[in-house]
Amino acid sequence: MADLSIDFAGIKAPNPFWLASAPPTNTGYQIMNAFHAGWGGAVWKTLGHPIVNVSSRYSAVNYRGRRMMGLNNIELITDRSLQENLTEMKEVKEKFPAHALIASMMFETKAEWHECIARCEDVGIDGFELNYGCPHGMCERGMGSAVGQNPEVAERITSWVMEKATKPVIVKLTPNITNITAAGLAAQRGGAQAVSLINTINSVTGINLDTMVPNPSVDGYSTHGGYCGPAVKPIALNMVSELYNHPKFNLPISGIGGIETWADAVEFFLMGASSVQVCTAVMHYGHRIVTDMHDGFSDYLDTHNLGTPTALTGITAQKLRNWENLNLNHKVIAQINPEKCISCQLCYIACEDGAHQSIRLPEDSRIPEIIQETCVGCNLCSLVCPVDECISMVQVPTTDQVITWKEHPANPHSVGS
Ligand SMILES: Cc1cc2nc3c(=O)[nH]c(=O)nc-3n(C[C@H](O)[C@H](O)[C@H](O)COP(=O)(O)O)c2cc1C
Ligand code: SF4
Ligand code: SF4
Question: So what CATH class is 323-395?
């Protein structure tokens, strides 16, 4: 079994599966239970001036029988006093010295940041995470995503923190920004040792059609919230890879956003992460999901003869390139396996009405046929087909020559034109 222990930017942990700063890390009681269950680290619920929360505060997108495909919250940072949190942090560190305990923080003035850093270091925490990401409530007060969306301010505040912190500092980035690399580079210029992403995405999850009030309702009104859970994973994976692939960015990345299984965790590593954090899945299913993460992740490493989690970091990110560098000479077409086909004809409808009219219904059979001459290999039929591996995309022979848009004759600016 592979050794899952990591050293993330100087923070050591028995495994790379950490709880993200959120309700599951509100208290020492919860974090100690999580460590017992197998989590390797935890980022404490963001410390700051304790706030007052609204009631209610969560809403969700259910999709075709799947509960909480996306979760939305209008919750703020910790609503408990700094002293209460520090006392419990000390207890956690004493009982679990080998686990990673990170203090997430959000303050306004340099003096406040410095005071909290000193007090957290006194109780033995292993590192800091700077919350520049909350998309509601705190940004109106000049914190959270108001900082994360402004690289200059993010750099300045990070450098304030670096003046005082002797433990590693992770900057947590907001996805509510056009260019994530600008934010990551600002954290790097400010002196941070790592970044984590993503925090939640601005969202309105739905409207109660009887009352016409958006969810969640607070006395008949609502506000935009932060979206997370499985629905945001594709956005998070892309942002992690964008940062990882940026030639000037060289900090370790803690990947967050929709992670539920070992396979999700592996994907974040492949896209450039060297640790992962989880919130929604633990709110949904509890601490126990980490057992499957351990087993599946280490089996995957063993199968691929890789000794450590970070041997995976970035392998797939390197397979992403700009569209103009893809091979326009590569061609696939759809192929239906008649043995597996249940004749639902969803593929026919999708191609006929939504793609390239390249599937015909033969008069003597309920099994559709691909019109090879016009199929463009878009994948749509294989995506809608309800039977696994019934439609496969098969490569058709072309010349071996790789032709990208840069060389393509249809490009008026092509090399050689
Ligand atoms: C109810 C709730 C409260 C959260 N509070 C915080 C917070 O205090 N600080 C923070 O940095 N992130 C906070 N987050 C964001 C999570 O840490 C995480 O970045 C986000 O939920 C994406 O991960 P997930 O898809 O695994 O939930 C919160 C998320 C939720 C759902
Ligand atoms: S791959 Fe696209 S074009 Fe080809 S048959 Fe399927 S849906 Fe039609
Ligand atoms: S969608 Fe799949 S199962 Fe349904 S008709 Fe097409 S190939 Fe057959």
Answer: alpha beta
Q: What is the dihedral of CA 125, 110, 49, 100, to 10 degrees?
A: -20
Tokens 């007052």 correspond to 52
Active site residue 139: no
Using CA positions, which residue lies closest to atom 8 of ligand 3?
Answer: 341
pLDDT score at 133: 77
Pairing of strands 17-19, 41-47: parallel
Q: Cα angle vertex 271, ends 266, 277, to 5°? A: 55
Chain-wide mean pLDDT for the chain? 95
Check: CB of residue 275 under 8 Å from CB of residue 212: no
CA pair distance 200, 175, nearest whole angstrom: 7
> Among residues 116, 120, 134, 228, which one is catalytic?
134
Q: What is the mean pLDDT of residues 266-289?
A: 98
Q: Are the CB atoms for 173 and 133 separated by under 8 Å?
A: yes
**Which residues of the chain does CATH 3.20.20.70 include?**
6-319
Closest residue by Cα to atom 23, ligand 1, is 257
pTM, 2 dp: 0.96
Q: What is the dihedral of CA 118, 123, 128, 130, to 10 degrees?
A: -60
Atom nearest to 277 CA in ligand 1? 26
pLDDT for 300: 98
CA distance linking residue 157 with residue 281, whole number of Å? 31
Domain spanning 6-319 has what CATH number?
Answer: 3.20.20.70
The secondary structure element, H or E, covering residue 257 is none
Beta pairing class for 127-131 and 100-105 = parallel
How far away, in angstroms, is 81 Cα from ligand 1 center? 19
In one-letter notation, the amino acid at residue 409 is P
CATH 3.30.70.20 boundaries in the chain: 323-395
Pocket lining: 279 vs ligand 1, CB cutoff 6 Å: yes
For a pocket test of ligand 1, which of 21, 58, 169, 235 has the largest count of ligand atoms closer than 8 A to its C-beta? 21
Check: CB of residue 71 under 8 Å from CB of residue 60: yes
- DSSP assignment, residue 218? B
Cis preceding linkage at 56, omega within 30: yes
Q: Whose alpha carbon is nearest atom 29 of ligand 1?
A: 22
Q: Give the closest residue to 356 by CA, choosing from 377, 341, 385, 338.
A: 377
Instruction: Label residue 287 by pLDDT band (50, 70, 90).
Output: very high
